[in-house]
Specification:
With 518 residues, this protein is mainly α. The chain folds into three domains: 189 residues, MFS general substrate transporter like domains (Growth Hormone, Chain: A, Up-down Bundle), CATH 1.20.1250; 58 residues; 260 residues, MFS general substrate transporter like domains (Growth Hormone, Chain: A), CATH 1.20.1250. Helix 5 packs antiparallel against helix 6 and helix 7 packs antiparallel against helix 14.
């Protein structure tokens, strides 16, 4: 392998690709209100601008990981960047939401290739202690990209308009292509002479699509029960397709995924942690953004600046974890960092009051940020240890898939916790408001429940409501209901991180040998 500065420029290229691909998961959030006005569409109708990216990204990760392993990761990484750039440009000039949704789908394909193959390319371009440091830096980029979406998106939208969040990808992408071509070493085409497991790829994509789409359906229709066929049918399909996928992979000569990988207890522990990190940390960003913007009243840019309290730790700790990981037990550092994040969520739960401000939240947010900044880089490094070269792309893809699935599960699961707590509080306390006519209780409760906790503040503090004699008490009840719902989210997230921490300590291994044969 080449020595010197070339490796670090190669790492820069991989980091830029990863940053762009993951940033576009969250950066659109803050632009949706502006886009809704531009297209004269409702926020709900534009929700698929977010959902289509999440869905296609998850579906594409494993497929592109395998293709990269087979035919050369650098080639597929470059092709993914080109797709991403072209799709970004189309999104920026999209004349209507349909074109935007199609562009976002292709953008997600490119993002999936960049995210899944960057980690494997770094692992194959570096060796020894430098590999741990490089993967640590890449891990910090992963943490920063997801968490900094509101800040970057807020700045771009406020100063250059919504299309700028897409156009900015074009020059950055071109720079990434140039750096990749010149400085990144190609990996061998491990499966160039093998037959593509087309059926396995189709089944894996269908499984992930059914799971994610079912969860998205539940997220978009909070009043639906899990037994509603529009939700249940997709989840049952995911289980059936998963069984078919496993059966197929066990019987084909050259499977998409070598199922012997899952005999590694260490890998299982790594995937559980990736799932937990997505469920608790990454999904929480959506709820935190709404809290800061809708309830405290910060602008998108002000919200992003304050969320640096979480995201900045990825930048600070990423390189440090590479050094620490070479000297100390990654298993223990990951486990105790997850416990620290759990404590942070408990602190956040305790801080939640009707008169909440940033000064109440920042100590808890610091602990969450330290957890993200420590665990993500260490998880990437630990996940690659002992993995044969020909499986590195797939291992990277699995970690990314479980992190993405965890984020989706978190948005849905924590959203349900929030909705239930919110509605329970309203059921008890709306009846106790003085001067509120009994006939209005049911009407107002239905309006609040149908709108959801995100929109409750807008209803409670509307001009029409302010003119009523019961406005103050009604507003206090809505704020208290929201506060209780956020406490439920924080407690649930804490439990997830404590469980993930236990998994790290009990399932992960401090080793550098493979648990399965090449």
């Amino acid at each position: 392998m080449e020595k010197g500065y070339r490796k670090w420029i190669a790492l820069t290229a991989m980091s830029l690709g990863t940053f762009m691909g993951l940033l576009d998961v969250t950066v659109v959030n803050v632009a949706l209100p502006t886009m809704a006005r531009h297209f004269n569409e409702t926020f709900t109708n534009l929700q698929w601008v977010l959902n289509i990216y999440t869905l296609v990204l998850a579906v594409s990760l494993l497929i592109l990981s395998k293709i990269g392993d087979m035919y050369g990761r650098k080639k597929i990484f470059l092709a993914s960047i080109i797709v991403f750039i072209v799709a970004s440009a189309i999104n920026g000039i999209a004349p209507n939401p349909i074109v935007l949704d199609i562009g976002r789908a292709f953008q997600a394909v490119g993002g999936a290739g960049m995210n899944s193959l960057a980690m494997a390319l770094v692992a194959s371009n570096f060796s020894g202690a430098r590999r741990g440091l490089a993967l640590g830096i890449l891990g910090s980029v992963i943490g920063m990209s997801t968490a900094s979406g509101p800040l970057i998106g807020g700045y771009l939208v406020e100063n250059f308009g919504w299309s700028s969040i897409f156009f900015v990808n074009v020059p950055v992408g071109i720079i990434t292509i140039i750096l990749t071509i010149i400085y990144v070493n190609e990996t061998p085409s491990y499966g160039a002479n093998q037959k593509i497991d087309l059926l396995g790829m189709i089944l894996s994509a269908a499984t992930l699509f059914s799971l994610i789409y079912g969860l998205i359906q539940k997220e978009g229709h909070t009043t639906w029960q899990w037994t509603n066929l529009n939700v249940l049918a997709w989840l049952i399909a995911a289980v059936v397709l998963l069984v078919l996928f496993i059966y197929t992979e066990r019987h084909v000569k050259q499977p998409m995924i070598d199922l012997r990988m899952f005999k590694s207890v260490h890998l299982i522990g790594t995937l559980i942690i990736a799932l937990g990190l997505g469920t608790a940390i990454y999904s929480f960003n959506a709820f935190l953004t709404v809290l800061m913007q809708n309830y405290i009243g910060y602008s998108a840019l002000q919200t992003g600046v304050r969320q640096l309290t979480i995201s900045i730790w990825s930048l600070i700790l990423g390189p440090v974890t590479g050094v620490l990981g070479a000297r100390f037990s990654k298993r223990k550092m990951i486990g105790f960092s997850l416990f620290l994040g759990g404590i942070g969520f408990l602190m956040f739960m305790n801080a939640m009051t009707v008169h909440l401000s940033f000064s109440n939240m920042w100590p808890a947010m610091i602990l969450m940020g330290i957890t993200n900044g420590m665990v993500n880089p260490l998880l990437n490094t630990a996940g690659m240890e002992g993995v044969p070269p020909q499986e590195m792309g797939m291992a990277s893809g699995l970690i990314n898939v479980f992190r993405q699935i965890g984020t989706t599960i978190g948005v849905v699961g924590l959203g349900l916790v929030q909705d239930n707590r919110y509605e329970d509080y309203l059921n008890v306390h709306l009846h106790q408001i003085a001067n509120l006519p009994s006939g209005l209780v049911t009407t107002l409760k239905k309006a609040l429940v149908d709108a959801g906790p995100f929109a409750g503040h807008g209803i409670a503090f509307s001009k029409r409501m302010a003119a009523t004699p019961f406005a103050h008490d009604f507003q206090r009840v809505v704020l208290s209901a929201y506060s209780q719902s956020m406490k439920g989210i924080a407690l649930s997230s804490a439990i997830v991180l404590f469980v993930a921490g236990i998994a790290a300590l009990t399932l992960m291994r401090d080793q550098k040998s493979s648990d399965f044969n090449e």
